[in-house]
Amino acid sequence: MKAFEKAEAAVISSVLSLESAIIEVYPVLKPEMFSRPDLAFIYQAISNLYDKGETVDMITVDTEMRKTDEKRWKEWGGIKRMASLVGRIRHISGLPYYVEEVKRQYMLRLLNTLFVTLGAKAAGFESSYTLLIEEAERSLLELRERCTVGKPLERIGCTANEVLQMHRERL
Predict the structure, then answer these.
(1) Under a CB-based contact definition with an 8 Å cutoff, are residues 10 and 98 in contact?
(2) 129-147 and 95-122 helices cross at what angle (nearest 10)?
(3) How far apart are the first and last CA of the chain?
(4) Count of CB atoms within 10 A of residue 161's CB?
(5) DSSP code for 124
(6) Quick one: which of 10, 26, 104, 149 has the most CB atoms within 10 Å?
(7) Tens of pLDDT along 85-129?
(8) Which of 25, 10, 1, 24 is nearest to 87 (CA)?
(9) Which residues of the chain have pLDDT under 50?
(10) Which candidate, 86, 50, 42, places its Cα nearest to that of 68?
(11) DSSP alpha helices (H): ranges in the chain?
């Protein structure tokens, strides 16, 4: 298992082992941020339960996974596999680090995909570098917004228009 996969497993293990861990993890991570499909599947079940205000533990997550996709649940091994995962990760004190590492690896995968795509477009004979720069800027802003916790970033033009509107209303 690679280091970033260990961080992903540690996040899942922490959430399944410690009731309060979901509060730290949920605002930052989304299921698609996990590189391993099995861990993304578990985290999707965890997120579904948390969204519904239900308890997150191995039994409820196992049940949610089975309800969501029984075929996948059977292939994956359900609660037996989760139990082995939780048993391997013992230190949950590093949870903030693990969460940031999962997010960092996800963002790096997205950046890699973006630059490979732009590189392929740039290799085209009729490519416009100005259009590619605009696409790169737009895509990078979207990535920045994805990784921001809390209020998302707004384009400067939107913020400027809001400020102008506020000043007009004051006059």
Answers:
(1) yes
(2) 170
(3) 63
(4) 12
(5) S
(6) 10
(7) 776 665 667 889 999 999 999 999 999 999 999 999 999 989 999
(8) 10
(9) 151-153
(10) 42
(11) 3-17, 21-25, 37-51, 58-68, 70-76, 78-88, 95-122, 129-147, 156-170
Q: What is the pLDDT at residue 83?
A: 78
Tokens coding 74: 């059977």
Cα(126)–Cα(109) distance, rounded to whole angstroms?
28
pLDDT at position 88: 64
CB neighbour burial string for 43-79, b if at least 16 within 10 angstroms, e if fewer? bbbbbbbbeeeeebebebbbbbbbeeeeeebeebebe
Q: Give Cα separations from 135 to 55, 77, 115, 118, 141 (angstroms).
A: 42, 42, 11, 8, 10
Q: Which residue has the tokens 């941020």?
A: 33
The answer for residues whose C-beta is within 8 angstroms of residue 15's C-beta and 6 or more apart is 21, 22, 25, 43, 46, 56
